[in-house]
């Protein structure tokens, strides 16, 4: 379920994006969080884009790779890629 203005809830993607900006896009786990925020908001194309960036980042821990790949596949299925 995505967040809407009507619900009064604030979407997570702006703060997650700001965290990535503050880290100069060098923290792949924060980029992964940004992807999850977009997915939570129903924006699966953006989620797939950022999950791909996280997967390409050299700093992504090995133990996080399998989960990131699964999420990327799920996002791609949801957006029809």
Report the CATH C-level class: Mainly Alpha
Helix content: 55-70%
Return the structural class: mainly alpha
Rg value: 12 Å
Spans of 5+ residues with little confidence (pLDDT < 50)? Answer: 1-9
- Give the topology string: H per helix, E per strand: HHHH
> Hey, roughly how much beta strand do the residues contain?
under 5%
* Biggest beta sheet summary: none
| Average residue-wise pLDDT | 86
Could you outline the blueprint of secondary structure elements for this entry?
Blueprint lengths: L12 H10 L5 H13 L3 H13 L5 H18 L2
Helix pairs in contact: 1-2, 2-3, 3-4
Walk me through what this model shows:
The chain is mainly α and 81 residues long. It has a single domain, classed as Tetratricopeptide repeat domain (Serine Threonine Protein Phosphatase 5, Tetratricopeptide repeat, Alpha Horseshoe). Helices cover 67% and strands 0% of the residues. It has four helices and no strands. The chain has helices at 13-22, 28-40, 44-56, 62-79. The model is unreliable at 1-9 (pLDDT under 50).
Fill in the keyword field for this structure:
81 residues
Concise overview:
The chain has 81 residues and is mainly α. The chain has helices at residues 13-22, 28-40, 44-56, 62-79. The chain has a single domain (13-79), classed as Serine Threonine Protein Phosphatase 5, Tetratricopeptide repeat (Alpha Horseshoe), CATH 1.25.40.
